[in-house]
């Protein structure tokens, strides 16, 4: 377990000891009454579900990682005594795919974790009399189906509670996080899927016990396995999208370190505005990407211009004003960005037609671009720079209202004002990441944002160094605004 911290090793060792104690009653000489035929079949099925993850032919297209096809584990918990059910998890967990180092430590941990979790689920199911509700192969032993659901659901709930508690514990130990933070959000996000897995496990157990025998259980397991594959493909696609966004944002941050964190905050503010406007949920993630990537065109601007100390020359200003078009060219081929591409191109347009690059006015400016323009200006005003403190949020909002109708869409400004009044806004340099989910309407704008990054790099107080050029005594006056 080289590379694993001392605290994490201690948690893993404790889990292994507990796992050994869980399976010990099923081992000789004590396990004389264990239905080894059922144990062997379930173990073989579970191992068959996990092995494709180790096969190069499948690559990353298999639906699951090591020890994660839970319907079979829950079916084992319903069909077998606790110690025997726990044994089912061992071979598949040890043989399954592990993508990140340290591989040995992760594999041992996952195996011990699932042994404990299945043992608890089986114990709870047995205490609630779940075994008697499953029926049997004889004609007089029909399953008591409505009453079989309650023990199965409670056992699935226990399964979810223990699994997430152990996940949070190892996360707290390995990452040195507060336990409360490590556990935060784990149970709500996993409880629903685990209950669905529990119902699939119940159907598997009912068919297994029926007169049709274990083979009939495949009619439940095969569709469930396929649905897991579809679900995992969706999540892999989403992960690829986030990785693309993260790479682009990191490239901009490297080139223009002065405004690091600005783009991520613009994405967050854009979502707050959109929620106030009642935009559909499926548009929020695309809008957040638009905010995060609004300045990606800076990659096409010479670094000496971006980091110049002092006022820009007219020629340098014209070069800077090309960054929306550069950005649009960079993201043109990224299909999943959708409306975000228009926002990247037009976020410096003004309602009165005096903006750039095309001088669009009014409703000619795409909706996403009008949202991002307000979010961009708001964060630029409220962010602290090396040469001046950020403006208070109320002052920034008033400045936006003053320029509504000429530079900004009044509807977007009002939406932002309502959002920050209701949700608040963290005016410090708090950055979120492209991996973070779209924030809920009730959460503070800066809460749970991940990494704290301080603004870096000296800039003179010349009114031209801000991310959106909103410095200077006259704030948003068009003559004073810099295209940066």
TrEMBL record:
Family matches, as Gene3D superfamilies: Hypothetical protein af1432
Enzyme Commission code(s) on record: 3.1.4.-
Region described as Disordered: spans on this chain: 442-484
Any Pfam family the entry gives: HD_5
Transmembrane portions of the chain: 69-90, 111-128, 148-174, 186-208, 214-232
Molecular-function annotations in GO: hydrolase activity
SUPFAM superfamilies recorded: HD-domain/PDEase-like
The entry's keywords: Hydrolase, Membrane, Transmembrane, Transmembrane helix
Residue ranges annotated for the HD domain, each copy included: 259-381
Residue stretches making up the HD-GYP domain: 237-432
Protein name (database record): HD-GYP domain-containing protein
Species of origin: Streptomyces yanii
């Amino acid at each position: 377990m080289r590379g694993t911290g001392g605290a994490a090793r201690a948690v893993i060792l404790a889990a292994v000891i507990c796992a050994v104690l869980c399976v010990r009653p099923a081992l000789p000489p004590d396990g004389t009454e264990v239905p080894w035929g059922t144990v062997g079949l379930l173990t073989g099925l579970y191992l068959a579900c996990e092995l494709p993850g180790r096969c190069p032919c499948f690559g990353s297209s298999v639906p699951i990682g090591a020890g994660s096809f839970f319907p079979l584990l829950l079916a084992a918990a319903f069909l077998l005594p606790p110690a025997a059910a726990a044994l089912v998890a061992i071979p598949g967990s040890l043989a399954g795919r592990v993508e990140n180092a340290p591989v040995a430590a992760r594999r041992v941990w996952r195996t011990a974790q699932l042994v404990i979790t299945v043992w608890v689920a089986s114990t709870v199911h047995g205490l609630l009399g779940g075994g008697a509700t499953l029926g049997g192969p004889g004609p007089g032993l029909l399953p008591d189906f409505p009453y079989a659901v309650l023990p199965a659901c409670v056992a699935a709930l226990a399964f979810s509670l223990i699994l997430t508690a152990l996940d949070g514990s190892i996360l707290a130990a390995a990452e040195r996080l507060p336990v409360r933070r490590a556990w935060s959000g784990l149970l709500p996000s996993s409880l629903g899927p685990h209950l669905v897995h529990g119902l699939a496990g119940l159907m598997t157990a009912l068919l297994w016990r029926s007169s049709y025998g274990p083979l009939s259980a495949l009619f439940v397991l095969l569709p469930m396995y396929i649905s897991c594959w579809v679900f995992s493909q969706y999540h892999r696609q989403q992960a690829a999208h986030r990785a693309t966004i993260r790479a682009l944002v990191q490239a901009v941050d490297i080139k223009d370190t002065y405004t690091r964190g600005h783009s991520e905050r613009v994405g967050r503010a854009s979502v707050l505005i959109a929620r106030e406007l009642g935009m559909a949920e499926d548009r929020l993630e695309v809008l957040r990407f638009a905010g995060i990537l609004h300045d990606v065109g800076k990659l096409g601007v010479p670094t000496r211009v971006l980091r110049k100390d002092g006022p820009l020359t007219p020629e340098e200003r014209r070069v800077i004003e090309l960054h929306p078009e550069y950005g649009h060219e960079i993201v043109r081929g990224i299909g999943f960005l959708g409306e975000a591409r228009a926002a990247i191109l037009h976020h410096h347009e003004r309602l009165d037609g005096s903006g750039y690059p095309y001088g669009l006015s009014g409703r000619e400016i795409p909706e996403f671009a009008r949202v991002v323009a307000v979010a961009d200006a708001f964060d630029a005003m409220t962010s602290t720079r090396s040469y001046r403190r950020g403006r208070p949020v109320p002052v920034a909002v008033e400045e936006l209202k003053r320029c509504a109708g000429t530079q900004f869409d009044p509807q977007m400004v009002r939406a932002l004002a309502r959002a920050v009044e209701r949700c608040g806004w963290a005016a410090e340099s708090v950055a979120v990441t492209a991996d973070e989910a779209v924030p809920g309407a009730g959460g503070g704008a800066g809460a749970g944002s991940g990494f704290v990054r301080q603004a870096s790099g000296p800039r003179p107080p010349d009114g031209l160094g801000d991310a959106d050029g909103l410095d200077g005594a006259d704030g948003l006056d068009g003559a004073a605004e810099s295209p940066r």
